[in-house]
Amino acid sequence: MSGSALRIYALVMRHVQIWRSSIMRLVDSIYWPAVQMVMWGFMTQYLLPQASFVAQAAGVLLSGLLLWEVVVRGNLSLSIAFLEEMWSRNLGHLFVSPIRSWEMATGIIIAALLRTLLGMVPVSLLAWAFFGFSIYSLGLPLVAFFAILQMFSWSIGLAMSGMIMRVGQSAESFAWAAVFILMPVSGVYYPVSVLPHWLQVISWGLPPAYVFEGMRSILAHGVVRWDLLGMAFGLSVVYLVIGFQVFQAFFRASRRAGTLLGQGE
Predict the structure, then answer these.
(1) Where are the alpha helices (DSSP H) in 48-100?
(2) What is the Cα–Cα distance from 183 to 195, expressed in whole angstroms?
(3) DSSP label at 195?
(4) Contact 210/216 with Cβ under 8 angstroms?
């Protein structure tokens, strides 16, 4: 194993050990998605006999909720993994070690992926137990949906983490709010076509819009829109590269300003 791989592995294992020593750190990854899933699940049960669209596309609300939680949990898991280093005053120690900024970014991405999976898999099983709905019925496209949404969430998380590193913990609230600002134009629970034209332009510039349109196509018509998946994947890669570059830029600015060693609560 190369030196970079070892350092990334060490960063990931640090977070795994933190989770093992305090299981409550993982509870929010399951608790909030589970609460929303139960609430929307019962609402779906109420709407099924009354709304033709919901009746034709059974589970569309639960599917939208679960896939949107992939974005939310991916962003928050990455941000929390970064903030753990700040809260423990460990950020300066990491960067006086041989660890490079891109290695740290990779480490917190892997930690975020693990935390998202630990949260979302149990919640998806709860949806099946409570309402008889399986998100896995989407089939192979579900893997693509998950990967695309995770990459998009990482791009936001990296940019927000970089900003917090440069500005300080006063910017921490942006880490929690960033993805929710995008929710209205992401087409989570409704088609992009219902938005005003100028908002549709913004929406089609975001990968989630293509994912949720593709999800509804499968649920309502049984058709896999590979063209939408291709666009979503391409945009997610672009956003991930931009997010990483923003993280790198903020890191360099923070290092020049000498603020890395002064981070903490």
Answers:
(1) 52-56, 60-87, 91-95
(2) 12
(3) S
(4) no
Averaged pLDDT score across all residues of the chain: 81
- HSE toward the beta carbon, residue 129, CA cutoff 13 A: 8
| H or E segment and range at residue 191 | none
Residue 237 CB-density burial (10 A; 0-12 exposed, 13-18 middle, 19+ buried): middle
Q: Please give the single-letter amino acid code of residue 101.
A: S
Q: What one-character DSSP code corresponds to residue 192?
A: G
Helices (H) and strands (E) in the chain, counts: 11, 0
Total domains, the chain: 1
CA atoms within 13 A on the CB side of 126: 20
Query: What is the number of alpha carbons within 13 Å of residue 97 lying toward its C-beta?
Result: 15
Orientation angle between helical segments 172-182 and 60-87, nearest 10 degrees: 160
Assign 76 to helix, strand or coil: helix
State the pTM of this model: 0.84
Which amino acid does the sequence have at 249?
A
Domain span including residue 25: 3-262
Look at phi and psi of residue 5 and say left if phi exceeds 0, alpha if psi is from -120 to 50, else beta. Answer: alpha
CA distance 193 to 102: 39
pLDDT category of residue 222 using cuts at 50, 70 and 90: confident
Instruction: Examine the pLDDT at 265 and tell me if it is beyond 50.
Output: no
CA 263 distance to own-chain centroid:
25
Cβ atoms of 107 and 8 within 8 Å: the answer is yes
